[in-house]
Amino acid sequence: MNLNIGLEGSSITRPPFFDGINYSFWKTRVTIFLQSLDYQLWHIIVNGPRMPTRTIEGVVSPKPENEYNDNDFRMLQLNSKAKHVLFCALALMNLIGYLHVIRLNKCGIY
């Protein structure tokens, strides 16, 4: 057991690193980190990515790229930023496990 955990200061520019130990402590730290960058990042992590849509005659559908406006591009930028923070915060083995669970979810297995 590493007794030096938490003795060093944290970076305000890099996400807290998760090595598979003490998830609840890491979750609190990464939540605060994401919210400090842009509060919407945490909402994207919790609720999933936001994609530009349009409504025609009451039917919501994906918006074609040639119709994107500045707000749509900001939304897409935030989606990418949220993924980037998580990829930087997770150890390789944790990231592999996370991607495996995502694949299982898409298949309806998990």
Biggest sheet, open or closed, and with what strands and sense?
Answer: 2 strands, antiparallel
% residues in beta strands: 5-15%
Instruction: Say how many strands there are.
Output: 2
Number of helices, counting only DSSP H or I runs of 4 residues or more: 4
Please estimate the helix content: 40-55%
Transmembrane segments: 84-102
Keywords: Membrane, Transmembrane, Transmembrane helix
Organism: Cephalotus follicularis (Albany pitcher plant)
Protein name: DUF4219 domain-containing protein
Features:
110 residues; mainly alpha; two-stranded antiparallel ribbon; transmembrane helix; membrane; DUF4219 domain-containing protein; transmembrane
Task: Write up what this structure looks like.
This protein has helices at residues 23-37, 39-47, 70-89, 92-107, and strands spanning 53-56, 59-62. The chain has 110 residues and is mainly alpha-helical. It has one domain (23-107). Strands 1-2 form a two-stranded antiparallel ribbon.
List the topology elements.
Layout: H1 23-37, H2 39-47, E1 53-56, E2 59-62, H3 70-89, H4 92-107
Antiparallel strand pairs: 1-2
